[in-house]
UniProtKB/TrEMBL annotation:
<protein>
    <recommendedName>
        <fullName>polynucleotide 5'-hydroxyl-kinase</fullName>
        <ecNumber>2.7.1.78</ecNumber>
    </recommendedName>
</protein>
<keyword id="KW-0418">Kinase</keyword>
<keyword id="KW-0067">ATP-binding</keyword>
<comment type="function">
    <text>Polynucleotide kinase that can phosphorylate the 5'-hydroxyl groups of both single-stranded RNA (ssRNA) and single-stranded DNA (ssDNA). Exhibits a strong preference for ssRNA.</text>
</comment>
<dbReference type="InterPro" id="IPR045116">
    <property type="entry name" value="Clp1/Grc3"/>
</dbReference>
<feature type="domain" description="Clp1 P-loop">
    <location>
        <begin position="36"/>
        <end position="212"/>
    </location>
</feature>
<dbReference type="InterPro" id="IPR027417">
    <property type="entry name" value="P-loop_NTPase"/>
</dbReference>
<dbReference type="GO" id="GO:0006396">
    <property type="term" value="P:RNA processing"/>
</dbReference>
<dbReference type="GO" id="GO:0051734">
    <property type="term" value="F:ATP-dependent polynucleotide 5'-hydroxyl-kinase activity"/>
</dbReference>
<dbReference type="GO" id="GO:0005524">
    <property type="term" value="F:ATP binding"/>
</dbReference>
<dbReference type="Pfam" id="PF16575">
    <property type="entry name" value="CLP1_P"/>
</dbReference>
<dbReference type="InterPro" id="IPR032319">
    <property type="entry name" value="CLP1_P"/>
</dbReference>
<keyword id="KW-0808">Transferase</keyword>
<keyword id="KW-0547">Nucleotide-binding</keyword>
Length: 357
């Protein structure tokens, strides 16, 4: 069987975990954030705490915000799961709700990540005694700001710092009196994972999620489209498309005029030529191939993911591969564009910059 999670439940944990469980029992309920560096044992600790609290009779929910190494599928989202039984890994939690991020790195999506964690933690608080929030190992630079904003917005009942580093000390100083802090030792049993191992584990998760998918044709006129500058403003007239195409020797598939200028989706039959980027936002059609998208419901939550297989932009349609059932697709009100190109076999083709679409 493929490995799709880095770590699981174990009772071989540092002694301070017992003190942590005792403290949580004293607190009785609340939101708990777990923060640590890469390979510090955050998810293992969350699994241990979740199982311990379950055995004590508490209702437990988990918010999985580690978009790079997701436990609760699908990837590229922040997810809320409920634990209805002891689990070997938090990936076994019953998924209840997701918030679309659309990439495996949150560095350019700090706002979306914070909003997603806040919304799902609020939902979890209504159905569980404890909401355990697993985070990424992204704690330096913008990662520190991401964690600080999560704490500032959520006002958790406890922040669990796992390990000790200069970045964690800086983060603790930036939190100040916003939350109570518990210091936990990094387990000596934690196994470091290389970049390649992490990539292989992600690939297995993509394959697992998209297994059994089907192709659906989406008419973009029936949906709100977000996460891109495309489809904003008025559609270009045919003569405008022909003129811009002729001037730049582009094949243009569709385009729009907005307050900032022109947006076109194009291909370069010849080698790329320079153009005025302050007037024209040109998006290469290949950037849409195998692009991850989210199907969003009327509450702004993510019903599930899809992969664009054929962008039929001249007719305003997309051919999308998705595992969502017809009744789930019927609830979608919005298509949101992500920033990772990935195949259903788990091959990650490209991470796009936010401004590319």
């Amino acid at each position: 069987m493929e490995q799709i999670n880095k770590a699981g439940y174990t009772t071989e944990v540092p002694e301070d975990r017992l003190s942590l469980i005792a403290l949580l029992d004293e607190i009785g309920s609340g939101k708990i954030i777990f923060i640590g560096d890469v390979d510090s044992g955050k998810t293992t600790t969350v699994s241990y705490v979740a199982n311990s609290l379950l055995s004590m009779g508490y209702k437990v929910a988990v918010v999985d915000s580690d978009v790079g190494q997701k436990s609760i599928l699908p990837p590229g989202t922040v997810s809320l799961g409920i634990l209805d039984r002891p689990v070997a890994h938090i990936g076994e939690a019953v998924p209840l709700a997701h918030y679309f991020i659309g990439t495996t790195t949150p560095s350019q999506y700090i706002g979306e990540t914070v909003v997603g964690v806040k919304r799902l933690a609020d939902i979890g608080s209504r159905i569980a005694d404890f909401v355990l929030i697993d985070t990424t190992g992204f704690i330096s630079g913008p990662g520190l700001e991401l964690k600080r904003m999560k704490v500032e917005l959520l006002r958790p009942d406890l922040v669990v710092f796992i390990g000790d580093s200069e970045d964690l000390r800086r983060l603790e100083s930036s939190i100040g009196s916003l939350a109570r802090v518990f210091h936990a030792e990094k387990s000596s049993l934690v196994k470091p994972h290389s970049h390649e191992e992490r990539k292989l584990i992600r690939a297995a998760k993509w394959r697992t999620y998209f297994s059994g998918s089907k192709m659906v044709e989406v008419d973009l006129n029936e949906f709100l489209v977000s996460g891109t500058v495309m489809f904003t403003g008025r559609p270009l007239l045919q003569e405008e498309i022909e003129l811009i195409g002729k001037l730049h020797e582009w094949i243009i598939f569709n385009g729009w005029k907005n307050r900032e200028g022109y947006v076109v989706v194009k291909a370069d039959p010849e080698r790329p030529r320079p153009y005025n980027r302050s007037v024209i936002k040109a998006i290469d059609i290949e950037k849409l191939s195998n692009l991850l998208v989210g199907f969003i419901d009327e509450e702004g939550l993510c019903l599930g993911l899809g992969i664009i297989k054929w962008p039929k932009l001249s007719s305003g349609k997309l051919e999308i591969l998705t595992p969502l059932a017809d009744e789930e697709l019927a609830r979608a009100r919005e298509i949101r564009f992500g920033r990772i190109r990935v195949t259903e076999e788990g091959e990650e083709l490209e991470l796009l910059r936010r401004e590319e679409l």
